[in-house]
Here is the input.
Amino acid sequence: MGLKIFIDGKFFDKKDAKISVFDHGVLYGDGVFEGIRSYNRKVFRLEDHLDRLYAGLNVVRIKPPMPREEMQAKILETLKINDLDNAYIRVVVTRGIGDLGLDPRKCANPTVFIIADRIKLYPPEFYEKGLPIVTAKTLRNHPGAMPPMVKSLNYLNNILGKMDAIDAGTNEAIMLTTDGHVAECTGDNIFIVKNKKVITPPCEIGTLDGITQKVVIELAENRGLETCVGMLKPQDLYSADECFLTGTAVEIIPVIRIDGTTIGKGTPGDVTKALLRDFSKITGVEGVGY
Ligand code: PMP
Here is the structure.
């Protein structure tokens, strides 16, 4: 049986899962989304994802297509119908079908669709040996232009950053704020470890309020490590003992080179490896990234 995709109350086969070209999600990236994982048929941090989804809808003033409890039930139903043990679930809510103008008032009903599939971002060797990354030429959206707590459907800023990474022969890039601070990577939050202190930039400067970021802070604190949400400059990264990225899709991936500068010993650091082990324990799935 092929994938079954939920759209506006019904399940469709992948080939029939279509939305209108007049949907403002397609025309303008007017919508919000979530990327969620399930491990051993249990959805990981679903409450946090629903919190972020409904907060985002509220900020951009899209009427929720259904109450939160029903959304939760539909996510679980999509997972069940697709019979996947470990899945990546994409929930998308757009402003809905309108006309060719921007006017959101013309969109009477939001569109919602849910896909449960698998995802594998990087080959296993990057998790074992670490990822080389670069600083993107493209700056991260200013928080005054795009509220950072909204996981908006408009990812062109991130995609331009990703293309900078690819142009530089790497897979991921750090995006800086307009005043030169480290914000995050194109699809992940960033952490450094310096003298056993675990540091990640704050959401207010324009990064996504990452759910994996929050989990990793909890794991670090459980290990008795000092954690800090604070401002970082590129030179702080170059002089860090360790660096790693976090995200629902990527989970935790070590970074061993930034802009050609070797980080720490050039291999995944001890704190990163310990956090990777702790993360596997809470998901119940061995070998992060598969
Ligand atoms: N930053 C950006 C830009 C993202 O798209 C994501 C999610 N892929 C993250 C950070 C990580 O967030 P989370 O851990 O909630 O998936």
In short: Helices lie at 24-28, 46-60, 68-81, 124-129, 156-167, 211-222, 234-238, 270-283. Residues 35, 158, 184, 187-189, 208, 210-213, 246-249 surround 4'-deoxy-4'-aminopyridoxal-5'-phosphate (CB under 6 Å).
